[in-house]
Design a protein that fits this description.
Thiol Ester Dehydrase, Chain A; 4-hydroxybenzoyl-CoA_TE; hydrolase; fatty acyl-CoA hydrolase activity; 131 residues; 3 helices; alpha+beta; Thioesterase superfamily protein; HotDog_dom_sf
Amino acid sequence: MFSEEFNVRFYETDALAHVSNTVLVGWFESGREPIFKLFNPELDLQNWSLILASYKVDFLEQIFYGQKVQVRTFISRIGRSSFDVYQELWQQQKKCATGTTTMVHFDYQSKQAVAINKSIKAELLANSYSG
C-alpha cells in the first residue's frame, strides 16, 4: 500500500460546506505518484509511459475542511499491459470515498499498449489489495 496525506484547503470546499466532488480525482491522482515513479523514476514527461483508460469514484461520506485526509493506494488487478489502482480516501478514521483507475503501459510513438516488465509487475504485486 502507498499512502499520502493532504490538508483540505478552503478553496476545495463548495457552497454546501464540504469538499467538492471534483477534488477527489486530483487527490487520487496525487496518490498514484509512487506508481508513476515505478514506470518513470524521474517523472520525465518526455518519456512518459502510462495512460489513463478509465476511472470511477464512489462517494461514501462527506469530506470537510479543517481535517486532513489520507489517500491509500493499492493495486487491485494486473494484466499484460494494464492494471487497476484501487484507492480509498479516509478522514477522521472514516472511509469517505473509493476509486478505481485503469492505467495502461503505453508507447505514445506507436500508440499501442506495451507489456509491463517483470520487475515492475513484482513491485505492483507487492502493493496489491487484499480486501
